[in-house]
Amino acid sequence: MQNWIPKRHAVRKNINGKFPRRHLALAASTLIALGLSLLLLPGENAEAKRTAIPLNLELSPTRAASNIAESAPIEEPEKPWTEVQVKSGDSLSAIFSRANLTPQALHELLTTAPKAKALNKIRPGQKLSFQIDESGELTAMSYQVDKLNSLIFERGVTGFGTTELTETPEIRQRVASATITSSLYKAAQDAGVNQSIIMELANIFGGVLDFVYDVRKDDYFIVIYEELYLNGERLGSGQILGAQYFNQGRSFEAYRYINAQGEVDYFSESGESMRKAFLRAPLDFTRISSGFNPKRLHPVFKTVRPHRGIDYAAPRGTPVYAAGDGRVSAAGYSKANGNYVFIKHGEAYVTKYLHLHKRAVSKGERVRQRETIGWVGSTGYATGPHLHYEFLVNGVHRNPATIVTKLPAPTKLSSGEMPTFKDQISGMQLQLKTYAAQRNYTNTDAG
């Protein structure tokens, strides 16, 4: 009975007591094998650990330090800028003085920096920024010419260098349309069109329409043009892309076109240049106070004297334009004509402009169509501010209001260029037709 013991109790006892020698040897062998397997077999994260540790045995201490320096460069802090606002009556020397800079610094900047002459055009409200080092020496200066352009002047070895910075504005298209009630200018203003676009619109159609003589009530126009934005702020207007003017049952279209040489002009749908040899009228938005009349009663002398031109009543100071390209053949003052300018256009044509307040050109100068040659006044024999305008063909006075329609036809695009032109303006044509149809539908629906 004493020798019968359950197996589990025997094992427990053997653990708590002594093992036989054979058993001890077997146990020792098993433990050694188990230990070796633990040392030789990798754990589940061992491979990941090995691949995560880079082996760069050839990297020297110097190279390692260089890599660290490259990955974390030490930058010197930028020197602070001092901003000075231009006040009314300010001079550059006064501004430099307020920035604690010497007259010598100003002189060095003006004499060494390219485009430094632009600083002579600073206006009240503009700001100049100066970068000055610890010793009080000017190292850099910034001048914002306008919202898109800036000049940066930086000190170099031999003086100051200049860097021009130009912001690129966002371009958005805008469409405006208006019906004429009194004048193109008033209708366009009421439609929210700014003055530069109004003037350009008159310039584009100036060869086919006299905006004094031809415009009638209920005429209307549609114009598609660019507006420029920077950081969400509207800066102004860009180019007119396309326009249509409806005048007494007639329709005139104009499209901006850039040819293969990069030249820009406006053309009708058929490829005919909108720029005619002569403007229909040499100034904008006025009224005719006296027309071409061989038997007119003179307002000053009260005698019948031929009126060989057209009088355009306009406020003093209204710009007067050259009606066409040419050369100034005479410019001066006389008792009857006041300040005057005569322009010769080739061999056959001469235009005359009388009673100017001031002249902008001198004898012998070449002028381009729509270039300002003077301003409306009342000098000489004049009862009020107006422009007296004459047109001569081979020395004979002709009616300026009608002669331009009888002159040679304007230039046209070549047949080879027409496909490119048609392709370039097709989108703008569709837009103009869509807006015109919408306008007519709205007006018919309203009626």
Automatic annotation (TrEMBL):
Cellular compartments annotated: Cell envelope
Cofactor: Zn(2+)
GO terms under biological process: proteolysis
Entry superkingdom: Bacteria
InterPro entries linked to this entry: Cell_wall_metabolism_enzyme (IPR050570), Csd3_N2 (IPR045834), Dup_hybrid_motif (IPR011055), LysM (IPR018392), M23ase_b-sheet_dom (IPR016047), NMB0315-like_N (IPR054512)
Broad class of the protein's primary localization: other
Catalytic activity, EC: 3.4.24.-
Domain LysM, first and last residues per copy: 82-130
Keyword DNA repair among record annotations: no
Keywords: Hydrolase, Metal-binding, Metalloprotease, Protease, Zinc
GO cellular component terms attached to this protein's record: cell envelope
Alphabetized PANTHER family for the sequence: CELL DIVISION PROTEIN YTFB (PTHR21666:SF288), PEPTIDASE-RELATED (PTHR21666)
Protein name: Murein DD-endopeptidase MepM
Source organism (scientific name): Zhongshania aliphaticivorans
Encoding gene, per UniProt annotation: mepM_2
